[in-house]
Amino acid sequence: MKVKVQSFDAKAKAADIELNDEVFGLDPRADILHRVVTWQLEKRRETARGTRERADVARTGKKFGRQKGGGTARHGDRRAPVFIGGGKAHGARVRDFNPSLNKKIRALGLKMALSSHAKAGSLIVMDSLSVADSKTKTLLGSLEALKFGKKTLVIDGDAVENSFALAAGNLHTVNVLPAIGANVYDILKSDTLVLTRAAVEKLEARFNG
User: Could you tell me if 35 and 106 are in contact, meaning their C-beta atoms sit under 8 angstroms apart?
Assistant: First the structure.
């Protein structure tokens, strides 16, 4: 699959890049994408700190008073939730929010997420992300010229270009990630996916390696 390489420099000569069909040319499957997104969001969840309930508290179980005539309620032991130091009623429990998912399914989901943008025509490949003087105003003009979508995800190589990261810092509609952070949820959530040449190389090497 050939894609035209864009540039922030209007005078730069346009070139084409050949994308690997095994990474960018798959037919997306909703069931695979759903499984990967569900797994990814479950991995983000954190469990509550566990509390001790009545059975977990180490206090005496001996009946501390007479059944009648003591002038107090009829309690059996001091582990009841009504006493200070007693067990909490219906307390929070530690839960497991760390589901497993086969690595092949996770890799396939990422390929399908990339392919979905390629097939929809919302994939843009950039030669470089360098922004003059790291100015947000300059970047906004470039984004309008290249017709970026409302929500844009930009993925660079090993590290994001510093001038672009600084310029995009004030833009809540632009999300920036290095290639190692590419994930299905963020890719599907964006209207436009922008990859640099370095990102394409890293992603293709990630699956071929």
Answer: no
Q: Tokens representing 178? A: 């290095």
Quick one: pLDDT band at residue 142, thresholds 50, 70, 90? Answer: confident
For the chain, the farthest-separated pair of C-alpha atoms sits apart, in whole angstroms, at 98
Decide if pLDDT at 192 tops 70: yes
The residue-averaged pLDDT of 98-110 equals 92
Separation of alpha carbons 48 and 46, rounded Å: 7
**Angle (deg, nearest 10), helices 197-208 and 103-120:** 140
Whole-Å CA distances, 108 to 86, 125, 205: 51, 21, 14
Query: How does pLDDT run across 34-60, given as a tens digit for each residue?
Result: 999 999 999 988 888 899 999 899 988
Distance CA 209, CA 205 (A): 6
Give CA–CA dist 4/65, Å, rounded: 85
Beta bridge partners of 17: 3
pTM: 0.79
CA distance 144 to 10: 13
Given a contact cutoff of 8 angstroms between Cβ atoms, the answer to whether 15 and 92 are in contact is no
**For residue 158, how many other CB atoms are within 10 A of its CB?**
10
Residue with tokens 């429990």: 93
